[in-house]
From TrEMBL:
<feature type="domain" description="Response regulatory">
    <location>
        <begin position="2"/>
        <end position="114"/>
    </location>
</feature>
<dbReference type="Pfam" id="PF04397">
    <property type="entry name" value="LytTR"/>
</dbReference>
<dbReference type="GO" id="GO:0003677">
    <property type="term" value="F:DNA binding"/>
</dbReference>
<dbReference type="InterPro" id="IPR011006">
    <property type="entry name" value="CheY-like_superfamily"/>
</dbReference>
<dbReference type="InterPro" id="IPR046947">
    <property type="entry name" value="LytR-like"/>
</dbReference>
<dbReference type="InterPro" id="IPR007492">
    <property type="entry name" value="LytTR_DNA-bd_dom"/>
</dbReference>
<protein>
    <submittedName>
        <fullName>Response regulator</fullName>
    </submittedName>
</protein>
<dbReference type="InterPro" id="IPR001789">
    <property type="entry name" value="Sig_transdc_resp-reg_receiver"/>
</dbReference>
<feature type="modified residue" description="4-aspartylphosphate">
    <location>
        <position position="53"/>
    </location>
</feature>
<keyword id="KW-0597">Phosphoprotein</keyword>
<feature type="domain" description="HTH LytTR-type">
    <location>
        <begin position="144"/>
        <end position="247"/>
    </location>
</feature>
<dbReference type="Pfam" id="PF00072">
    <property type="entry name" value="Response_reg"/>
</dbReference>
<dbReference type="GO" id="GO:0000156">
    <property type="term" value="F:phosphorelay response regulator activity"/>
</dbReference>
Length: 247
């Protein structure tokens, strides 16, 4: 996987490079000390993965991600501060490593990136969940527990699934519980005739779409009925979306 290391501390970049030498699947194609260096590098080199520091001179790591045009690479944050963890997962980071980076944790992060990059690359054909279980459709009911609250909800009522790091938030009625499951694992169980992966962070229920609008960079913006939920369909997924719905 093509990788760029972005960190304003040269020693931190060198240490991460040294650790990554243990991982032959990782190809470091560039290093940057700040966002201004990193942005043209990301555009030109099209990496699969960024190891990204958060606190840097100029734009911080979050602002850098917001400035990336087109499809963003996968992201693993590396930082000396743990108070950014929740915000990092709001940006759909695959992992969050505290400095000094531990080799075992780094190895775990790389495995997670590999799973994400390999997801969905199997040949086209009837979709069967990887674990052999049956697909879940809109008429199936699922048990959802979030803290002390529990629901037994028909999946057809769930209009939106949103990735929150290692959790997924379900949107139904006026409820938004969190479940401990990755969006990829959930996508594997859901019937693709009803549930569509709009982008890295969202799966939408096609039955709940009220309005479709053109959006930036060839993407689409959908509004879900009965709510103020608006979800961007990425440029790549917009092509699939149009083919599915024959737009």
């Amino acid at each position: 996987m093509r990788t760029i290391i972005i960190d304003d501390e040269r020693l931190a970049r060198n240490e991460l490079r040294r650790l990554l030498e243990n991982m032959p699947k990782v190809q470091i194609v560039g290093e940057a000390a700040n966002a201004d260096e990193a942005l043209p590098m990301i555009e030109n080199l099209q990496p699969d993965l960024l190891f990204l520091d958060i606190q840097m001179p100029g734009k911080n790591g979050f602002e850098l991600l917001q400035a990336i045009e087109g499809k963003a690479p996968e992201v693993v944050f590396t930082t000396a501060y743990d108070e950014y963890a929740i915000k990092a997962f709001e940006f759909n980071a695959l992992d969050y490593l505290l400095k000094p980076v531990d080799l075992a944790r780094l190895t775990e992060a790389i495995h997670r990136v590999e799973e994400e990059l390999n997801h969905g690359q199997a040949p086209e054909g009837p979709h069967v969940p990887k674990d052999g279980s049956k697909l879940l459709g809109e008429n199936d009911q699922v048990f959802v527990k979030d803290g002390e609250k529990c629901w037994f909800v028909k999946l057809g009522k769930v209009r939106l699934f949103e990735s929150m790091g290692n959790y997924v938030r379900l949107y139904f009625d006026d409820q938004k519980p969190l479940v401990l499951k990755s969006l990829n694992a959930l996508e594997d169980r859901l019937d693709p005739a009803t549930y569509f992966r709009a982008n890295r962070k969202h799966i939408i229920n096609l039955q709940w779409i009220e309005k479709i609008e053109p959006w930036f960079s060839g993407g689409l913006l959908v509004t879900l009925r009965g709510s103020n939920d608006k979800v961007e369909i990425s440029r790549r997924q917009a092509i699939r979306f149009k083919e599915m719905l024959s737009l």
